[in-house]
Design brief:
The chain is an alpha+beta fold and 381 residues long. The chain has 11 helices and 12 strands. The chain has 2 domains: 192 residues, no CATH class; 174 residues, Serine Threonine Protein Phosphatase 5, Tetratricopeptide repeat. Helix 4 runs antiparallel to helix 5 and helix 8 packs antiparallel against helix 9.
């Protein structure tokens, strides 16, 4: 039978700082943290994924002692340790102080390229001079590593420690943040321990969430339906669902709103699905709509040019010219549309007309550059 450690034993362990154990007083009271290791947390989103680290933070200087140079390999021993409690003779470091360091994710991610399901995990580490083994345990509610059980391990990954600027308090920080990945670092004293977190397809998570949201109140708002359809269009994924959302945004009973934005989005999705005739009819309807402005159709044409749809873009610019003859920026669009389709003569004609209409110096400068390119026979981007 294992006897509970005496208070003197616990007090001795508490003095070490990193390995402070449960104090003897009631845990139902709100009292200062053991060892003055203040609680901390940091949260970062990777797209729809929310990543949260919760931990207790020890410091290098404590009770008048400067422990610089004595943290790694001494205060935090290398390898597994006999903690002297609960028969845990080969236990990792709790990667912080006091209670479990907890790593929580709302969706599945990859840690150093290895999958980890959504959930809360007790985070532990096996320190070493050349590598740290990071452990994610199903037990996220224990006190430190004293009840660590390797059978509760969900994932282990090896990471390489690196030197860093001096850090007084043990701190977790997201040092790199990209749309599909982030780097979480433990920083303490003169060492950094980086952990790479990635999400395979952030857009897919957003799409799955949109599908759920469309079953609720947003599914009865044309503006929300339009935003969802535009997301499908932007990503080029799930265009069938995007088509349904766009059609409902235009014409669903008591919901739809037939305007330039809803119609032009529907047309672009139809075009993306290969329905060129239906798309052109929808584009014509969009430009004819009372809500359409010459700048709206111009932007639609520019978008189609960027997608490499040169013929379709020219038709938009031509329709814009029929509805808004001579208005700014109709001639700019015609110049770019004709240039993209190889008609330099007409492109130059409309570029010169546009230059005479330019409302400011910035547009004049851009048009002069366009005319110069066309006169050299260069097709502008």
């Amino acid at each position: 039978m294992t006897l509970a450690p005496s208070w003197n034993t616990l007090a001795g362990m508490a003095a070490v700082g990193c390995f402070a154990v449960i104090p003897a007083y009631s845990q139902s009271l709100t009292l200062p943290p053991s060892g003055e290791n203040q609680k901390a947390s940091v949260t970062q989103h990777i797209g729809l994924v929310k990543v949260t680290m919760s931990y207790s933070s020890p410091r290098v200087h404590r009770a008048g002692q400067d422990r610089t140079g004595k943290i790694w390999g001494e205060l935090v021993p290398y390898g597994l340790s006999d903690l002297g409690v609960n028969d845990c003779k080969e236990c990792p470091w709790r990667a912080g102080a006091n209670e479990n360091t907890v790593f929580k994710i709302t969706h599945a991610v990859k840690i150093e390229g290895k999958p980890l399901a959504a959930g809360s995990y007790g985070l532990h580490m096996i320190p070493g001079t050349e590598k740290f083994t990071v452990i994610f345990s199903k037990d996220s509610s224990a006190w430190g590593s004293y009840w660590y059980n390797p059978q509760q391990d969900v994932l282990r990954v090896d990471v390489k420690p690196a030197k860093g600027e001096f850090q007084e308090w043990l701190t977790y920080e997201f040092t790199e943040r990209e749309p599909a990945k982030a780097k979480l670092e433990l920083r303490w004293e003169n060492l950094r321990i980086p952990i790479a977190i990635s999400v395979d397809d952030p857009d897919e998570l957003y799409f799955q969430n949109l599908e759920k949201e469309m079953h609720g109140a947003p599914g009865f708002q044309w503006s929300d339906l339009l935003a969802a359809a535009q997301f499908a269009l932007q990503t080029g994924k799930h265009l069938d669902a995007g088509l349904d959302w766009a059609q409902r945004a235009v014409s669903a009973p008591f919901v739809g709103n037939e305007n330039f934005q809803t119609l032009s989005t529907l047309g672009q999705i139809q075009l993306g699905l290969g329905s060129a005739e239906a798309a052109q009819a929808t584009f014509d309807k969009a430009i004819a709509n009372p809500s359409a402005k010459p700048t709206d159709a111009h932007q639609l044409g520019r978008q189609l040019l960027q997608q490499g749809r040169k013929a379709e873009a020219l038709k938009i610019f031509q329709s814009n010219a029929k509805k808004f003859p001579g208005q700014w920026p109709v001639n700019v669009g015609l110049a770019r549309g004709y240039a993209a389709n190889g008609d330099t003569k007409k492109a130059l004609e409309h570029a010169r007309l546009a230059l005479a209409q330019a409302p400011d110096e910035l547009n004049k400068k851009a048009l002069k550059a366009l005319i110069e390119q066309l006169e050299k026979g260069t097709v502008p981007n």
